Amino acid sequence: MTNALTVSGLTKTYPDFVLDQVSFSVPSGSIVGLIGENGAGKSTTINAALGLIQKEAGQVSVLGKDGLDGETRSAVLAAADVLNSRGAEIAPLPFPALKYAVPAYYIIAAAEASSNLSRYDGVKYGWRAGEYEGLAELYRKTRTQGFGAEVKRRILLGTFALSSGYFDAYYKKALQVKAVIKDAFDEAFQRCDLLLTPVAPAAAPRLGESLSDPLSMYLSDIYTVPANLAGLPALSMPCGFDGRGLPIGAQLVGSCFGEGTLLNAAHAFQQETDYHKRAPKGGVPA
């Protein structure tokens, strides 16, 4: 029976891209490099949370971020060590553009939500309110009753960002930041194949827990939204559990059309670990 790669989440470069073949080991001589916010040369045990596998030599790096949970940091560093055991070598790289990812992403995403969700009026698409008098009331009740609090929040934010007088100050500037982040990735991938990061700064929250604090919920996306902004393939996989038995995820980000290398490294990691076969305890202390 063939060993299968268990992938928790995979975002491809383009939705119609088909991977023809995947090998099952990190190439010998790979280099794993640690990225620190303050630049190269940081210790691999300090502020470690993001990693890259170098292009020619297959390097992985780790990026430090204030607010990163200690157990998450340790689990991702352990994942880097597993890749290291498969032939990767660790070396530092800076990635200062990370701190701009969340504000830029949520301005762009909210603007797109505001524009795209305007079509859901109860006439042509989606759910329709049951009782109404006139077209205006149909629109109002359908959108009031049909959209949840978070959707309404994003529509309002996006409408504001796209409004006259604020378009240049918010939406246009967010697009400029998006380009800066893409350039930062392009520069990093001149030296690296893959980016290893946590999926979130801490272990998974309990169901519904994050909804009570939208700002913290947005900030928890700091490691995953850069790949979306840059249009890069990314993969998430389990890499451990915290003291409560809640899962910790690691993310691999590849260069454009680098899905083969991405899946290759993830499979190498899962050949050495069994986190993808273990169910979380749902908050019960370990």
Describe the structure.
By secondary structure, the chain is an alpha+beta fold. The protein has helices at residues 70-85, 101-116, 135-146, 149-162, 167-188, 214-219, 225-230, 259-272, and strands at residues 9-11, 32-34, 51-54, 192-198, 234-241, 247-254. The protein is globular and about 70 Å long.
**Mind telling me the CATH superfamily name of the largest domain?**
Amidase signature (AS) domain
Helix content: 25-40%
Alpha carbon gap, first and last residue: 33 Å
CATH architecture term of the largest domain = Alpha-Beta Complex
The radius of gyration computed from the alpha-carbon positions, rounded to a whole number of angstroms, is: 21 Å
Poorly predicted ranges (pLDDT <50, ≥5 residues)? 1-7, 14-65
What is the average per-residue confidence, as pLDDT, rounded to a whole number? 75
- The SS-based structural class is alpha+beta
Q: What is the percentage of strand-forming residues?
A: 5-15%
Give the overall shape.
globular
Give, in spatial order, the strands making up the sheet with the most strands: 1-5-6-4-3-2
Do you know the CATH topology of the largest domain?
Amidase signature (AS) enzymes
- Main pleated-sheet profile: 6 strands, antiparallel
Order of helices and strands: EEEHHHHHEHHEEH
How many structurally independent domains? 2
Which key terms come to mind for this protein?
286 residues, alpha+beta, Amidase signature (AS) enzymes, 2 domains, six-stranded antiparallel β-sheet, 37% helix, globular
Layout of strands and helices, then pairs:
Layout: E1 9-11, E2 32-34, E3 51-54, H1 70-85, H2 101-116, H3 135-146, H4 149-162, H5 167-188, E4 192-198, H6 214-219, H7 225-230, E5 234-241, E6 247-254, H8 259-272
Antiparallel strand pairs: 1-5, 2-3, 3-4, 4-6, 5-6
